[in-house]
Amino acid sequence: MVRPNWTNHSGQTTGTGLKWSDQTVKCASPHFRAGARHGSNMSDPHRSLAQEIEAELRDDILRGQYRPGERLPSERDLATRFDASRGAVREALKKLEQVGLADVRPGGVRVMPIEDATLEVLGHLLALGDHPDPRLVSQVLHVVGALMAMSARTAIEQASDAQIAAMRELIRSLLEQPDGVQHDWRELAVYFTEVNQNLVLRLVGNGLKTHFVARFQAIGEISLDSDQTRDAARAQLLNLDDAIARRDAHGTARCITEHFAFIETGLIAALAERDAAPNAASREARS
User: Fold this and answer.
1) Residue-number span of the structural domain to which 195 is assigned
2) What are phi and psi of 230, to 5 degrees?
3) Are 72 and 109 in contact (CB under 8 A)?
4) Which helix (H) or strand (E) holds 154?
5) Beta strand 102-105 pairing with 108-111
6) Residue 74 near residue 108 (C-beta atoms within 8 A)
7) Span 125-140, pLDDT tens digits
C-alpha cells in the first residue's frame, strides 16, 4: 500500500512513504506525456494540460517527494519536464496554491505543509496508490460520523411530528432491503440537515460527499454475508428507529456513532483483504 509522508510544520517526516528516484523527479511519466498530448476531449486543451501538470505535482507533494518549505522547480524547468508552455505551468501552480499545497511568490514556489491544505486535498490523499491508507479511512469516518451524529441530534430536537414520521419511513425503507445489501444512510443524513436547517453542516456534508463517497465506494461494500453481520446491521437500524420515535436526541446520535464504527470495521477489513490478495499471489508464485 502507498502511504504518504506525514510532516509537521517544521518539515520533519512523521511517517513512511514512497521514495522516488532522481529520474522520476526530472522526467514526466510516459503516462503523463501520452495523456497530455492525446488524452483530452475538452474544448480547451491548454487548460487540460494545466490540470494534468497540477495533478502530477500535487501527487508528488502528497507522496512527500517535495517537503514543506522546499522550492518547486522553476517555471522554465517544469515547462521542460512536462513539455508544456510556461503559461500552462503557471496555471497549474496557481491551482496548487488555491488548495493550500504551494505558496507562489515572485522569487519562486514553496511547498506548504499538507496540514495547511484545504479539504479537497484529502480526497486525493485517499486516491494515492492502489488502496487508501487505513489510517486516513478511519480518520475520515470518525469525522463524518461525528458530524452526522451532531446533525441528527439537532434535527431530533427541532423536528415536527411529521418530520419524525418521515425519518422513521426512511429507516423502514432500509429495513425492507433484501438480506446481504449494504444499508445506505446517505438519504437519512441529507434529511437530518434539511430538518435542522444548518447551512454549515449541509455545505460541509456536500464537500465530504464530493471528495470521499466515490473513494469509499471504490473500496467495496461491507460484506453482509454472515448472519451475525446482517443481524448487527439490522439491530442498528431498529435501535435508531426506537431512539427517533422517542425523540431521544442523544440516543439517536449514539446510534449513528455506533453505525460509523461498524462501517469502519468493515472497510478496514475490506482493505486488509485486498492487501493480502497480491501478497498471497506473490508467495504462491515464488513457491
Assistant:
1) 130-286
2) -65, -40
3) yes
4) helix 134-158
5) antiparallel
6) yes
7) 888 877 778 888 889 8
